[in-house]
Amino acid sequence: MSPGNWSQVTAFVLLGFPRSHILRFLSFLGLMVAYIVTVTGNALIIVLTLTDRRLHTQMYFFLRNLSFLELLLVCVVVPKMLVIICTGDPTISFASCIVQSYLYFLLGTTDFFLLAVMSLDRYLAVCRPLHYETLMSSCTCCRLVLASWVAGFLWVLGPTTLMASLPFCGPNNIDHFFCDSWPLLRLSCGDTRLLELMAFVLSTSVLLGSLVLTSCSYTCIIATVIRAPTASERWKAFSTCASHLTVVLIVYGSSIFLYIRLSEAQNALLNKGASALSCIITPLLNPFIFSLRNNKVKQALRDALRGLRPTAARDCERHK
């Protein structure tokens, strides 16, 4: 189609929502509960690791940043979903769609880099304990987190800029619940082969590169744990990494399924399910995985609750 025969699409229609009123109500209820729990849980981890001095260590510094990432990720996707289900209007403007897509992949890419950094931190803590404080100083931790954000920003900026400049002349229906890149590319009436290749190479390099670093770190950790002289020492070393390893398996499992395979071969329902796992379920599980399996976080939470009880009692007496 020649440039003079098409008009640029100004909005997209998200079709990845149930049509039945009952299913829409149940979806809204489930999403609202998941959103509230996710925001509350991750915010609680951020507050606890900031205020409790026992959690002012490198591991909890990275955990705080991971919770912040998960908090932002769920806020990028879920509020718009709730608005669409509540109002019944599935449209999203072109600009909002591009911004949502960029933020989603920015946060997701930064998440991969941060998980790789956290695996390196656990490797140094378990395999190089005598040099850990020197190698993983506070300044080094800040630089690693900043580098993760900068890398994520730059990694996604180019493809998103190119995608925003593509012509979209209709149709404008996206069979998804948010503005994923592959459905958007299929709607363009321009040549997307170069952008598809770039997106595939970049996503594959991020996933495989961070996965190789994470796998190497945990291979060394497991080898060190096996060589520990006593069962208690083996359990102590492994317990410090179990929560992070659980999150790694969930994140990489869903993301490899989504972005390593060619989009044409993907089943739409499974695609949406894997997307929900990465941007809704994982942020929801994050605070439970790290708090329920971590004695220091649980103790900090108990102490914080005990500190609130006397204050609440004094407030009640004052009002009487």
From TrEMBL:
<dbReference type="GO" id="GO:0004984">
    <property type="term" value="F:olfactory receptor activity"/>
</dbReference>
<dbReference type="InterPro" id="IPR017452">
    <property type="entry name" value="GPCR_Rhodpsn_7TM"/>
</dbReference>
<dbReference type="GO" id="GO:0004930">
    <property type="term" value="F:G protein-coupled receptor activity"/>
</dbReference>
<dbReference type="InterPro" id="IPR047132">
    <property type="entry name" value="Olfact_rcpt_6C-like"/>
</dbReference>
<feature type="transmembrane region" description="Helical">
    <location>
        <begin position="141"/>
        <end position="158"/>
    </location>
</feature>
<keyword id="KW-0812">Transmembrane</keyword>
<feature type="transmembrane region" description="Helical">
    <location>
        <begin position="197"/>
        <end position="226"/>
    </location>
</feature>
<comment type="function">
    <text>Putative odorant or sperm cell receptor.</text>
</comment>
<dbReference type="GO" id="GO:0005886">
    <property type="term" value="C:plasma membrane"/>
</dbReference>
<dbReference type="InterPro" id="IPR000276">
    <property type="entry name" value="GPCR_Rhodpsn"/>
</dbReference>
<feature type="transmembrane region" description="Helical">
    <location>
        <begin position="25"/>
        <end position="50"/>
    </location>
</feature>
<keyword id="KW-1133">Transmembrane helix</keyword>
<comment type="similarity">
    <text>Belongs to the G-protein coupled receptor 1 family.</text>
</comment>
<keyword id="KW-0675">Receptor</keyword>
<keyword id="KW-0807">Transducer</keyword>
<keyword id="KW-0716">Sensory transduction</keyword>
<feature type="transmembrane region" description="Helical">
    <location>
        <begin position="238"/>
        <end position="262"/>
    </location>
</feature>
<protein>
    <recommendedName>
        <fullName>Olfactory receptor</fullName>
    </recommendedName>
</protein>
<feature type="domain" description="G-protein coupled receptors family 1 profile">
    <location>
        <begin position="41"/>
        <end position="290"/>
    </location>
</feature>
<feature type="transmembrane region" description="Helical">
    <location>
        <begin position="102"/>
        <end position="120"/>
    </location>
</feature>
<keyword id="KW-0297">G-protein coupled receptor</keyword>
<feature type="transmembrane region" description="Helical">
    <location>
        <begin position="62"/>
        <end position="82"/>
    </location>
</feature>
<keyword id="KW-0472">Membrane</keyword>
<feature type="transmembrane region" description="Helical">
    <location>
        <begin position="274"/>
        <end position="292"/>
    </location>
</feature>
<dbReference type="Pfam" id="PF13853">
    <property type="entry name" value="7tm_4"/>
</dbReference>
<keyword id="KW-0552">Olfaction</keyword>
<dbReference type="InterPro" id="IPR000725">
    <property type="entry name" value="Olfact_rcpt"/>
</dbReference>
<keyword id="KW-1003">Cell membrane</keyword>
